[in-house]
Each structure stands twice: as structure tokens, then as C-alpha cells.
Amino acid sequence: MEIMVEHAVPERDAAKISELISICRDERRTILNAYTPEQEEQYLRHMQEREAVYVAYMEGEFAGFAGISPRWAYSIRTRHCAEGGTWVMPEHRGKGVGRTLWEKGVLPWCREQEFKHIGALVMAHNTGSIAFYEKLGFHVCGYHRKIVDWDGELLDAVEIEKM
Predict the structure, then answer these.
(1) What is the structure's pLDDT at 97?
(2) Structure letter (DSSP) for residue 3
(3) Which sign, positive or negative, has the C-alpha torsion 31, 115, 56, 9?
(4) Residue 140 phi, psi (nearest 5)
(5) What is the CB neighbour count within 10 angstroms for residue 163?
């Protein structure tokens, strides 16, 4: 099956992205807040310079998204650093959606933006996500104990990076 990757279109993709974030939150796979479709649409319409959101479709069906933005944007000395994330619909996991989002969307865009260091924070128990990023050439560079406050329960997260 062909996977189409392109920049997110706010009016088409906001509700689908919002739904996927909720699914991943229910599975405890993401540190993202829950956003309404309206909030997500506003975000997509008003992204800052050097931010991007890519979506993937398989045979016309929304399959996932990936986002990338500057990391530590408060300093010119870290202008080459970005932070990204990937979310894939449960029925499309393991079908190459995440890899295609990065290979056709995020990584070429990062080269255009001159990002040389890409990082992400992944829930430590989300071993599937960690393995996914390792296949893309990321490596674990840190472990944060009790950094994620999940409704009062403090959970661990893994810092990953790619240079």
C-alpha cells in the first residue's frame, strides 16, 4: 500500500490529529496534552517559524502524523536543534507509516531548516516507540526518572537523539 505524506492541512487534518492524540493518551503513549479539534486547527494555522506537522494517508485514510519544532529556541547557540514526535493510528502501526513520515517529510524538512540535532522525549514504557526511533538512527542518550506527571503518578521517560 502506498503511503502519501504531506504538510498537514488545518481544516482537513485537525480533527484527525486531535483524535489520534486522544487515542495515544488513552494508551499512555504520549506526553502531549489533549487538544480539541478547534485548538489543533488553530495550532496548525499559526505554527511558528521552523515548525512543521506532516500527515500520512494510506489509500485515502488518515494513518498518522509527525511534528517537528525548534528545541531550546531561546538561544541562538542551539538553533541547529529540533524536537520531534510521531503518532500512528493503531490499525496502521507496523506498516511503515512512521518511517515514511520521517523519510519523506520530517528529515528532508530538517535538512532544509539546517537542523543537525533532533531529539525526542518518549515514555520509558513505550518500548515500541523507542525501537522505532532506534531503527531511524536515533539512540537513547538519557533516562529521566519521574519526569512525566500523569494525573498525579510520576512516570519515567527516555531522551533520544539523532545527529
Answers:
(1) 97
(2) E
(3) positive
(4) -70, 130
(5) 12
- The pLDDT assigned to 5 comes to 97
C-alpha cell read off for 137:
538512527
Residue 85 in grid coordinates = 514526535
Look at strands 139-150 and 153-162 and give their pairing.
antiparallel
In one letter, which amino acid is 109? Answer: W
Q: Is 153 left (phi over 0), alpha (psi -120 to 50) or beta?
A: beta
Type of residue found at 134: E
pLDDT digits (tens, 9 = 90+) for 94-133: 999 999 999 999 999 999 999 999 999 999 999 999 999 9
Sign of torsion over alpha carbons 68, 72, 75, 81: negative
DSSP tally for the chain: helices H, then strands E: 5, 7
Residue with cell 522525549: 121
Alpha carbon separation from 30 to 12, 13, 16, 75, 123 (Å, rounded): 23, 19, 16, 26, 7
- What cell was used for 5? 505524506
Domain annotation for the chain: domains and CATH numbers = 3-162 (3.40.630.30)
